[in-house]
Recover the amino acids of this structure.
């Protein structure tokens, strides 16, 4: 690890000011960033820790009945809430206890790892990503592999999830890392069904439109029979080909629908 | 005499050094030949190719056993290594010779929930005739028996499911099993 300065602001305004310098990088739970620094794959001059900012932590239901999760809220707290059980289940199966006690929802969404679980929940729920300057719809937020709509120095403050009628997340784990080789989040709302897939695509998390349409007409695993993605554009690595990931997307979508009940 | 050799305050140090050393070599008349039989039951998820080990039993003849708990532990550890080799562990290099499984993010070590509880049996104890203790080697038995047992069980499961598969390279990962099932 190279030397760096560390700031621990206690207010959002101080954090925004500290990040305006250019060299600085925000640090949340550090479950990706710290290992990256340890391997000397990054050398930021300054880290600005966001976990000491009280207004970024905690979970509440907002006036519209949405589940509002503060960006610096660790996974273990999301796992413990019972307003949105599918989201709790997803959070309870990220990494291991150490990761869940440190890692945060804002950190996960800002990093947008193509195999992370939270992007599937945010996109699958049509969540709103709230930052210090604006509100971004999940459909506009995920722009590619490790890429988001966030501007330089912009900080996620809260993620608002509309609570669905029913939902579930089905993850097939990569055997070594236990990240999602393929993870599918399915949620049914009054307006329709959303299906978001993580781990599979070279473009990062995506919505599976054909499955959404079929499930809107008939919310059952059987409604998906005959639907298949092809392996083009899917991640291919030592853990599985693009065709395998495309196949698993179908399997995990059916399992998520079955689990949603 | 040993005490005197190590307490040299009244030694004639200019004539002899303190200390006492002796080395002896034992040349056994033959090696030891442990033998055993291993069996395991696996389930293969037909949709994903994921293999789950439901039961694993190991019966070994290690001759006379001095400390049964240590021997059980050796077998448990060996089976864990063998299951890791059969299902998970894989060093992969790219075309430039770069190791791409250089961390545990990609190199899959067996973890507690990858292995079942084992049944081990050492009730058949035929004393070895090649050494005075009648003992046989037990350290590597689990790691030798487990890989073939697990992979043969997977092949048997696939064949009983109607798939014409008679070989899959280790590690028998979900993607490899799925590909084998595609024919």
């Amino acid at each position: 690890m190279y030397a760096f300065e560390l700031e621990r602001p206690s207010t959002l305004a101080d954090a925004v000011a500290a990040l305006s310098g250019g060299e600085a990088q925000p640090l949340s739970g550090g479950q990706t960033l710290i290992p990256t620094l340890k391997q000397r794959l990054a050398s930021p001059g300054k880290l600005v820790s966001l976990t000491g900012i009280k207004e970024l932590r905690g979970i509440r239901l907002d006036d519209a009945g949405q589940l509002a999760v503060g960006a610096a809220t660790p996974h273990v707290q999301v796992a413990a809430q019972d307003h949105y059980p599918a989201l709790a289940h997803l959070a309870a199966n990220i990494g291991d206890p150490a990761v869940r006690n440190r890692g945060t929802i804002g950190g996960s969404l800002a990093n947008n790892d193509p195999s992370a679980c939270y992007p599937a929940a945010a996109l699958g729920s049509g969540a709103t990503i709230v930052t210090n300057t604006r509100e971004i719809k999940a459909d506009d937020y995920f722009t590619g592999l490790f890429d988001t709509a966030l501007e330089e120095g912009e900080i996620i403050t809260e993620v608002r999830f509309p609570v669905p009628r029913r939902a579930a997340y089905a993850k097939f784990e990569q055997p070594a890392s236990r990240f999602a080789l393929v993870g599918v989040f399915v949620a049914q709302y009054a307006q329709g069904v959303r299906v978001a897939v993580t781990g599979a695509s070279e473009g990062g998390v995506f919505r599976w439109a054909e499955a959404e349409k079929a499930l809107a007409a008939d919310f059952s695993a059987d409604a998906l029979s005959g639907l298949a993605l092809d392996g083009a554009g899917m991640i291919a690595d030592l853990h599985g080909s693009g065709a395998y990931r495309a196949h698993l997307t179908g399997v995990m979508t059916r399992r998520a629908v079955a689990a949603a009940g | 005499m040993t005490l005197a050799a190590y307490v040299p305050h009244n030694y004639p140090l200019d004539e002899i050094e303190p200390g006492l050393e002796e080395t002896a070599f034992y040349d056994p008349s033959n090696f030891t030949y442990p033998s055993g039989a291993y069996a395991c039951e696996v389930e293969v998820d037909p949709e994903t190719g994921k293999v789950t080990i439901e039961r694993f039993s190991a019966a070994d003849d290690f001759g006379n056993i001095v400390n049964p708990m240590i021997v059980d532990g050796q077998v448990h550890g060996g089976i864990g290594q063998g299951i890791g080799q059969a299902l998970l562990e894989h060093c992969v290099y790219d075309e430039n010779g770069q190791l791409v499984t250089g961390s545990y993010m990609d190199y899959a070590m067996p973890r507690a929930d990858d292995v079942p509880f084992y049944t081990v049996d050492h009730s058949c104890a035929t004393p070895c005739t090649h050494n005075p203790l009648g003992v046989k080697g037990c350290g590597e038995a689990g790691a030798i028996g487990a890989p073939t047992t697990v992979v043969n069980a997977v092949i048997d499961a696939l064949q009983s499911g109607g798939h014409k598969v008679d070989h899959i390279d280790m590690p028998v990962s979900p993607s490899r099993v799925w590909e084998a099932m595609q024919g």
User: Anything to note?
Assistant: The CA atoms of residues 126 and 138 of chain A lie 6 Å apart. The mean pLDDT of chain A is 96. DSSP finds ten helices and 14 strands in chain A. The interface with chain B takes residues 172, 175-177, 179, 181, 238-241, 244, 247-248, 251 of chain A (CB under 8 Å).
